[in-house]
Amino acid sequence: MASYLFSEPGVKLHFGLNTSALLNAIEHANVIVLHAAIYNNFVNNAVGQLLLQRLQSESFKQLTLIKLEPTGPWRDEFATILRPKMPRQEIEQLYEISRHWCAELKTQFPEVVNLVSTQALPLQPILLIGDKLFVGHYAHSHTTSAQGLWIEFDAIALGLAPNSLIDWFYSGVNTTEDSPVAITLGRYVEECRRAVGDLWYQSVIALDKERH
User: Fold this and answer.
1) Which one of 2, 9, 21, 95 is at 20 to 30 Å from 202 when CA atoms are compared?
2) Alpha-carbon distances of 202 from 110, 181, 196, rounded to whole Å
3) Is 200 exposed, middle or buried (0-12, 13-18, 19+ CB in 10 A)?
């Protein structure tokens, strides 16, 4: 059986996260943004090993790691979404493993790794790998997001200029971009930007101040 549900130029739907496709994208990307809440799975797997190799490459520019530090009322509920079969105490241990891994990368590569903590509610796992986007889905289920549906976008194959996604991440999505492709992919990039700046969280605080 094929590893994907649907494949057209620039778009693939995968049964679960396609690790081979992800590794291939990482191998060819010089800028990577990971927005996936916790990263304990990367500590000893092929993805983490390849990221370490890429960080040591002179051609690699930046890895942004967006790690979740939940404090909102949705914290416990989201924990059961991340790891539905695991006791809360064990999930906390996974958070700690993830924190340690992220901190180690930041210590080893302080000028290349941009480590960001966010308290904003994650809406989907997003892996921005150069000109590729891998987007999963969180769900109330007995399986994890890695086992669910994943969309793989190839921005260049979809007609966008090289480095468009990365440029949008750093500078914002151009509001004059009105093509369906730019609007769709831009929403995912904006989600990463908001998590990095925690703009959602800041906007709530600002709104609360205005009300008082």
Assistant:
1) 95
2) 26, 29, 11
3) middle
Q: What CA dihedral angle connects 187, 153, 22 and 16, to 10 degrees?
A: 90
Using alpha carbons only, give the angle 169, 3, 65 rounded to the nearest 5 degrees: 25
Give me 72's structure tokens: 């909102």
Q: How far apart are CA 57 and CA 53, in angstroms?
A: 7
98-116: per-residue pLDDT in tens? 999 999 999 999 999 999 9
Residue 178: pLDDT band (50, 70, 90) is: confident
**pLDDT tens-digit series, residues 44-80:** 899 999 999 999 999 999 999 999 998 889 999 999 9
Task: Check which CATH number belongs to the domain holding 71 and give it.
Answer: 3.30.870
Distance CA 74, CA 97 (A): 21
Q: Are strands 126-129 and 132-135 parallel, antiparallel or unpaired?
A: antiparallel
For residue 3, the one-letter residue type is S
- How many domains is the chain built from? 1
Q: Please say whether the beta carbons of 112 and 61 come within 8 A.
A: yes
**Number of Cα atoms under 13 Å in the Cβ half of residue 143:** 10
Q: Vertex 189, ends 187 and 193: CA angle to 5°?
A: 115
Domain of 177 in residue numbering reads as: 4-211
